[in-house]
Structure formats: structure tokens, C-alpha cells
Design a protein that fits this description.
Elements: H1 11-22, E1 26-30, H2 32-38, E2 43-46, H3 47-63, E3 71-75, H4 80-90, E4 95-98, H5 105-115, E5 119-122, H6 127-137, E6 142-145, E7 173-179, E8 187-192, H7 193-205, E9 218-221, H8 228-241, E10 244-247, H9 256-263, E11 267-271, H10 273-280, E12 294-298, H11 302-312, E13 316-320, E14 331-332, E15 352-357, E16 370-376, E17 388-389, H12 393-399, E18 405-413, E19 419-424, E20 428-431, E21 434-437, H13 438-445, E22 451-461, E23 465-474, H14 484-498, E24 507-510, H15 524-534, E25 540-542
Helix pairs in contact: 1-3, 1-8, 3-4, 5-6, 7-8
Length: 550
Amino acid sequence: MAYSDPNLDTVHDAFMDAARHYGDRAFVQVLNETAAAYGIAPGDWSYAEAAQEIQQLRERYVSNGYQSGDRVALLLENRPAFFAHWFALNGLGVSVVPINPDLRAAELKYIFAHAHPVLAIAIQARVADLKNAVASAEIACLVIADGEVLPSRAKAATQRHVASEPDTPLSREAAILYTSGTTGTPKGCVLSNLYFLSCGTWYSTTAGLCNITTAGERMLTPLPLFHMNAMACSTLAMIAVGGTLIILDRFHPSTWWDSVRESRATCIHYLGVVPTMLMAAPPSSDDRKHTVRFGFGAGVDRRLHDPFEQRFGFPLVEAWAMTETGNGAVIAANHGTRKTGLNCFGRPSADIEVRLLTDSGQDAAPGEPGELLVRRAGDNPRHGFFTEYYRDPAATAEAWLDGWFHTGDVVTRDADGDLVFVDRKNNVIRRSGENIAAVEVESVLLRHPHVAAAAVAAVPDPVRGDEVFACIVAEQTPGDEPSRDTLAQDIVHWALDQLAYYKAPAYVAFVTALPLTSTQKIARAEMRDLAMRMREDVNTVDTRTMKKRS
């Protein structure tokens, strides 16, 4: 099963087509817990109700002058309003820039200065922050709270974004998602309508353990709508089959199974932290009282994979994809012999080509680690992938070196052709499913007045996968010097004001010098070793309790 109309070429049209076929069904369900967190009404939002609201909103955008070539930033969390604005704008050829609500001053300024949206719509609590970011970025962008009167487009900047040719509706930019890389600032991944529709097509036709049907699927996800997993995979899959999307405000371990049962979920999405926290709870006679057929995600602790399935009674299907690849090169362990407890994410399908490249540039032998390179089979190796890194052609070209997309993930391939995740090749910290660029954190720490030098590395965390470890060379100043603990806390407070909470250091170690190369760059391998050695050092301050979502 895929979309009923194979000629659809926008996300808006795909939704409207689903509304014609499944109008009485619930498109989105808001559970009581999520409603309370957001201060909105709980209950179902049907396809027909959503279609009517989208059409009315679209007409308001038209009457106020918004049109193809514009961008609109959305900071709306996991609320139904996100879909209303996204689909209405998409129907006009307007691209959206979803914003992580955890981002702070430096990150917001960067996104606005880079993407140049003409309008930003936010929850009321963040309107002032976005206005400050717009002013700091020195761009003309209107900022309003969701529900406020829509302002005229004429009051915003006059310059429009010019999409790359060819500009058909299918290839047109539908969104820019910002993802952390290794260059210090997030990259803006330009995603087309084809990208999103391909996600729905893949998920609704992949079958196997992830078989979803038009019989009334109910997909529950705690993942955020500013990420491709929920925005593209979950949303477009449910639209393709007329299913219901149950979006939580976030993952709540203590009430998770209550949400699963209340929603009557048939499938769930997860990241590695979810199974870990659920397995930490004591066993219960209610553990199998649910309607879930499968979980779809990545990063489950291999030691917990089999015990989780035995305890809760459904398979966790490990998969691999990136924002850049979308479902153009998704690989999932939903077919064939299952290999649980091995970090195995299956083998590529016939329409995906894979290479594993060693550091010497040779193809890796079976069982030998190598960087995963992927592309689409056939005439268009970029089919279903991201369009480009916005305003960064050099990074786009580097990622597609020699006609292959270089993922930065190190994997092995066994004798059966199944792929096993080993590690990240690049200097990215992976905390609870979020990619954190060490260079981005370092650049913020270096702006603190008492920091002379800073380097960041990942250290293992039993729940979150990685945590952020910062080594600091303190600036020597005359007079009274703050204590080690006080200075560490001050540095972390500084980081929390500038960065999303999860990027802030969980440990701050004070050192006299950083490990450097002969060219005075941070020696990353030595830095990782130093971080591991200093976790229990007297000069290290544990600041994990300061890392809380505000």
C-alpha cells in the first residue's frame, strides 16, 4: 500500500487525498497527559477537521501575500498546530523551518541568519526569544504567536528564496531541517516534497515486521516534529494508510505504558534511551497488556534487545537512516533472520547500493569495519535524499564525493550481508538520539570570559549513550579566583543560556593544557582518552544535574 493517487507531488496534496478517503478517521490523537503539558484540548483531530482547518489557514496566508519562494519558521513543539501550518504553507509552495524548542540564543540567531524566514510562528512562551534572535540576526522577519492575527507579507523582507532548478512541485523545497555536523554550526538540510512522499511510500510498503495497513494503524511517537523521524517517517506513513498519529510532548518513562494503552497504539517509535529506561522499571503483570505489534527505531542497547522483547512481547526493529538520506537509503532489519543483541540493522534492499570503505580507501572485507557509503540504485543516485546543504555547496559536494553519500558511520558486514553498527567516524557526540557537534559546544565555551581553551569529547553514559565531557584551560586573572566547582557551574550556566540543554557539558575538567596536534588543532583521539581518564579525577566537576529541559 502507498498513496491512493500515485501522481501526488506535494505533502499538502497527499494529506488532502487522505482526507477524501479517510475523513472520519482520527489523523492526530492528543492524549490527556500531552494536552495538560501543552495547555490544549485532548482528543481526536479527524482528517476531515484537519483538512477544513488547513484550507482556511491556507486562504489566510494567500490573502496576506505569502507565496512560493517564502520560508516560515515554526516553533510549535509536537502540537496539532504544527501540521495545520505546515500543510497550509506547503500547499502554497512555502517552505517551513522547524525549530527545536530547546534551542537558545546563539543557536536561534544562527538559524534565522542562515535561513532568512519571512515569518516565525511560535508558542507564546518563546515569542520574545525569537524576536531577540531576529533582531540579533539583523533580518526582517515577523514573529507571532500561534493564534494571533496573521500579518501581511509586505511587512517582511522583500527578497524571496529562489529555489534550485528544476523547480517542479515534487522537487521544490518543502522544509529545511538543521542537523549537527562536525564543522561547528548546524547544516541546513533542504528537503523536497519528493523526500517526504518517499518516506511515506517506503514505510507503507516495506512490510515484514513493519507491516502497516489501511485497517486503522495507530502510531505512537515521543520523538520531536523538528526531526525527520516524526516529521517525515511517522507522519507521511500514517497519511499514506489513513492511520492515526499519537504524538507525545516527550518521552515520560513512568507513564509510557499508560499512554500506550490509552492510545491503543499498534506500533511505536523509539530511540535507544526508551528501551533502557523502560527496562529499568520493575516487571509488572501489565507488561504485555497492550496492542503494539512492533517498535521501529534505532540504538537499543544490544544487552537489552532480547530481554525487552521477551518481557513486553513485541519486536524492536532496528533501522538506519539519516536526515540527509531520508528513506532514499533506509536500511531496516524487518525482513529475514533476526539478529538481535548485535547492533544489527539488517541488509539493504535491491534499490539501495552500499559500500564499506576502510581508512585506506579500500572496500572492507566481511567483518572488517568501514565507513558506510550509500546511494540509490538506478539512474538517479540521489533519489529520495536531501537536495543539498543550504548555502554550503562545498559540504554537499564533500558528502557526495565520488558519487556516493558518505555517512560518517562505521559499520561491518557479515557473511549474510547484514550490517552491524560500530561507531561514528566523525567527532559527533550522540546523546539520547541527538547529534552534538563537539566544535559547536567548544565555540560557545570559548566565549566565556574565564575560559582560555576548551575541548569536548563523548564519554559513555549507561542511559543516554554518550554524555558531553569538557576539558577547560581556565583564564588566569589577577585577584580573587572562583573555586573549581563555582567556575564549572558558571561555565555550564553560560552554555545553557546559549545552547540546547542537552549540548551543555555534563562534566567539566580543569586541565593545564589540551592535547594538540603539530598544527595546534585538538588531537581528538587523545582528547577522548583524556576524557575517559579524568571522569573520576579530583579536578573534574560533575554537572549532570544542571542539564534539565527548561
